[in-house]
Design a protein that fits this description.
The chain is α/β, with parallel strands linked by helices. The protein contains 17 helices and 14 strands. The chain folds into two domains: about 240 residues, Spore Coat Polysaccharide Biosynthesis Protein SpsA, Chain A; about 220 residues, Rossmann fold (3-Layer(aba) Sandwich). The strands form two sheets. A seven-stranded mixed beta sheet has the order 3-2-1-4-6-5-7, with helices on both faces. A seven-stranded mixed beta sheet has the order 10-9-8-11-12-14-13, sandwiched between helices. The longest helix is centred in the middle third of the chain and has 20 residues.
Length: about 475
């Protein structure tokens, strides 16, 4: 543990009365383990900067850097500056310490220990882990109740089990910070919520340790109602991005295309449609990483995969892989005939899907079929976006930035009819809610939001049954070439 390079980021704003005492409280036995301390004075209106410079001059056991920001960066902006400082200094651990002394510097060894042992990527000091500690330490009742309510909401929406989302006493692995886009975050107080979301999305390990609560005479600069609004908006945006709604930057660690394993998803319905058929020869167009193909092979089918590029591990998941761009038509050298052609989530990526269908038709026998799934542009979400004049592409979902063709149920059926196919079976699916529960890896203290997803899914299924053109997220079709009359 002694070789860990530890930095302390002291965020300070109008902290002239408390800064020196806060620095004095750093335990003497811990000081030799600190590589550097950065005091970030956020354009204070008092003598915070002078106090920091004075402490720098007289300190003999701490390496202190003092920065006065010429303009107020905000609570989040000050942290961004400090975390970039930690990255630039190639530190291993950086601890956020408030210059007003609200968070006990005496707890620094406990805060950094899990990181030094390699047991965590982030450690949060929690005032809620010790029963009665928060109120006993002077936390006002309205803040205590607000903290508990907001934490409950955030845990439910994001899928975590943290005891507190709103502590400002934190330590981070600098390597973990390098892997999350913290520079995109707010400059305000909701920065702390956004960085938790990013850590969860990146699959980082979060550990909480109990800390004492102290409320003194410091002035709070937080507008409680605005803060509550902002953090609720942040976590709801994250959930929406995981579901394929919005720009998607908060779901940065998730794959744009994921296996859909919910019983009502397009992939599960597709597998169900083939459940009573054996030893099929399957052509999987747009096979991606081959996860769906591997499930078909497990059932005894022979699968040839086609995609524009070879994903890692694809050769192990298909019997044969052909690299080809479907925008140029079907590749040569395929081993016809095939019993089933899969076009799962692929035709919307092809500029001329009707050409693909036309080229397939001569190769299909009377019992051969095409199973295709396409997103529904008539879904309420893109309809609303268009009505509001905000037709922007998303990272994933119906408005995925890689989609070049858009379908409603009617337009897709017109296209296949024009190419000489009959629709022999169709189904409608809802939003793939199960992807909301997936993060980039296992996160300590996390829990799925399965019950919430199941409730939403039940309501959605009822809506789809009433009006699929408006509420279906995807349509699934089984097609057969029409027999000439």
């Amino acid at each position: 543990m002694g070789s860990t390079r530890i930095g302390i980021l002291v965020v300070a704003y109008n902290a002239a009365a408390t800064l020196e005492r806060t620095l004095d409280r750093i335990p003497p036995g811990y000081r030799p383990r600190i590589t550097s301390v950065l005091v970030g004075d956020d354009a204070s209106g008092d003598s915070t900067h002078l106090i920091a410079l004075g402490y720098q001059q007289i300190s003999t056991d701490l390496s202190i850097e003092v920065v006065r920001h010429p303009n107020n960066l905000g609570y989040g902006g000050n942290q961004k500056f400090g975390y970039q400082w930690a990255v630039d200094r190639d530190l291993d651990v950086v601890v956020l310490l408030h210059g007003d002394g609200q968070y006990a510097p005496e707890m620094l060894p406990a805060i950094t220990e899990p990181l030094e042992r390699g047991e965590a990527d982030a450690v949060f000091g929690s005032r809620m882990l010790s029963r009665g500690g928060a109120r006993g330490g002077g936390m006002p009742l309205y803040k205590f109740v607000g903290n508990r309510i907001l934490t409950r909401v955030e845990n439910t929406v994001v899928g975590t089990q943290l005891s507190e989302w709103h502590s400002g006493y934190r330590a981070y692995s600098v390597d973990a910070l390098r892997e999350v886009p913290f520079h995109r975050n707010s400059d305000g107080f909701d920065f702390d919520t956004q960085v938790i979301v990013q850590l969860v999305e990146a699959g980082k390990r979060i550990v909480e340790v109990p800390i004492p609560t102290y409320y003194g005479d410091e002035i709070s600069h937080v507008n409680g109602m605005a803060y509550a609004r902002d953090v609720c908006r942040d976590v709801m945006r994250y959930r929406a991005h995981k579901m394929g709604f919005g720009t998607g930057e908060l779901a940065f660690a998730s794959q744009a295309y994921e296996s859909k394993e919910d019983p009502g998803s397009s992939h599960e319905l597709l597998l169900a449609w083939l459940a009573d058929r054996r030893d099929l020869r399957v052509l999987d167009l747009g096979c991606s990483d081959g996860v769906l193909a591997s499930r078909l092979r497990e059932r005894g089918h022979h699968v040839t995969g086609v995609d524009v590029s070879a994903h890692a591990g694809i050769e192990d998941r298909v019997d044969r892989f052909v690299e080809a761009d479907l925008d140029r038509g079907l590749p040569d050298g395929l081993d016809w005939p095939y019993d089933v052609v899969l076009a799962a989530d692929v035709l919307e990526h092809v500029r001329r899907p009707e050409r693909v269908l036309a080229e397939l038709r001569p190769h299909l026998g009377p019992r051969s079929s095409i199973i295709a799934s396409v997103p529904n542009f008539g879904h309420w979400y893109p309809r609303t976006r268009v009505a509001l004049g905000r037709f922007d592409y998303d990272r994933r979902g119906v408005l995925d930035r890689d989609h070049v063709r858009f379908f409603t149920r009617r337009s897709f059926e017109w296209m296949v009819d024009d190419q000489g196919y009959d629709v022999v079976r169709r189904a409608s699916t809802g939003i793939p809610l199960e992807v909301v529960d997936r993060r980039g890896g296992d996160t300590a203290g996390s829990a799925g939001t399965g019950s919430a997803a199941r409730t939403i899914s039940s309501v959605e299924r009822a809506a789809i049954a009433l009006r699929p053109q408006l509420f279906a997220y995807q349509f699934l079709f089984e097609l057969r070439a029409r027999t000439p009359s």
